[in-house]
Amino acid sequence: MTVELVRASASDSDVLFAARVSTQGEQTLQAAQAGDEAVAEKRDAGLINYLMRDRHGSPFEHTAMTFYVAAPIFVFREFMRHRVASYNEESGRYRELRPVFYLPGPERALVQQGKPGAYHFLPGTAEQHELVDSAVRQQSVAAYAAYRTLLDAGVAREVARIVLPLNLYSSMYVTMNARALMNFLSLRTTHEDSAFPSFPQREIELCAQAMEQHWQRLMPLTAAAFTKNGRVAP
What we know:
Layout: E1 2-9, H1 12-24, H2 27-34, H3 41-53, E2 64-72, H4 73-79, E3 86-89, E4 111-113, E5 120-122, H5 126-152, H6 157-160, E6 169-176, H7 178-188, H8 202-218, H9 220-228
Antiparallel strand pairs: 1-2, 2-6, 3-6, 4-5
């Protein structure tokens, strides 16, 4: 998976300005212009923790992050279940899709156990990994060969693409604010400090973990408060 932070307007100070307008009104404009350097970090951390703990979420919406993500299509379908972000994905109607396919590595757990919504996974046997590797390679090669045959015969890209499988790589830009990102992380990562268990598919969890690393560098106080308060989106 590839996750890159393309641009961001997101910092802990954005949250603080938005929150303090409730009590300071126009005085927050003066603080913003001055950079608000006089406010102690301890006080800032306390306010952010209060907002997170008592779930005052709107101040966290005054931020924006745009990520470039390259991942298999089946990962994108899970991404787009989150209707709290803006997405723009490459189009198989307008460009010829590249023969790049996802193949689970030997570290990928293969055996699923448990009931729906509470799965856990165990490592597969050597035979299972060999079977997955062989089947995925064979089907990916055959599907792309069929795609090329259709294109070469003059079939439109938007029709030819329907033979391609979900493990084909795609790319997109996704833009969200910090509150939306916390909602995404709460559902798409497993973490020992989570107040509520989550059971994400491993491939989307890899994307989520990379996004969280970028976010932690941008908003360390907010990220710390998120984890301290059970990784529940405010």
